[in-house]
Specification:
By secondary structure, the chain is of the alpha+beta class. The chain has 2 domains: 64 residues; 89 residues, no CATH class. 51% of the residues lie in helices and 21% in strands. The chain is built from 6 helices and 6 strands, in the order ααααβββββαβα. Strands 1-2-3-4-5-6 form a 6-stranded antiparallel β-sheet. The longest helix is centred in the first third of the chain and has 38 residues. The radius of gyration is 36 Å and the shape is elongated. About 3% of the residues have low confidence.
Length: 189
């Protein structure tokens, strides 16, 4: 084999060819082939050992993390996993726990909740959430509790979208037995 053919070979083949050339110069042909066979058997055994180790590690991880009912000794991995997941869920659950439920009798399919209340009674800002058949809608209203007027400032499917919306009109009267009336009773209390 000439130099141009050796350069065109991939790295692993080039190294194997160089090893074979070196061994052939030192040993007779029969011993050289036996040495290469031993090397190939060693590589195959090493690959199989690595695969077995990888499978054993994957099985161990599956037993530890996917079988929460199986008791563990001092490690307690399933308990730690459940505690970690619970810690991640607390902020999501507390966001729903902070919202105060508002009863709106004429809207039986929707569940209204007061998310945020701020400002003074003459300019009370209220953010509400309505969960219904079509999803969640957030609304921001400004109430004047003394005059019983309201202005719908913005709505959106998320709080970010709601904040970007702008009011269409000015303050208007709160209509009796409307959704705005039931929200006003919570906002101005």
């Amino acid at each position: 084999m000439n130099t141009d053919q050796r350069v065109a070979m991939p790295g692993g083949q080039r190294q194997l060819f160089a090893l074979r050339q070196a061994v052939e110069t030192l040993l007779p042909r029969q011993q050289c082939l036996a040495g290469l066979r031993i090397h190939a058997v060693f590589n195959l055994a090493e690959t199989n050992r690595r695969k077995a180790n990888r499978a054993a590690i994957q099985n161990q991880m599956a037993r530890v993390f996917l079988d929460p009912m199986k008791p563990r000794s001092s490690a307690g991995a399933p308990m730690k996993l459940h505690a970690f997941l619970l810690v991640l869920m607390i902020p999501a659950l507390s966001a729903h726990a902070e919202a105060k439920t508002i009863n709106v009798p004429h809207d039986p399919t929707g569940q209204h909740a007061l998310v945020e209340k701020s400002g003074i009674p003459q300019a009370r800002v209220v953010v509400t959430r309505r969960e219904g058949l079509l999803g969640v809608i957030y609304s921001k209203r400004v109430y004047n509790c003394a005059n019983h007027t309201v202005n719908l400032v913005g709505t959106g499917s998320t709080l970010e979208i709601m904040e970007q919306a702008r009011a269409v009109s000015g303050m208007g009267p709160v209509i009796r037995d409307s959704t705005a009336d039931y929200i006003e009773s919570e906002a101005c209390s």
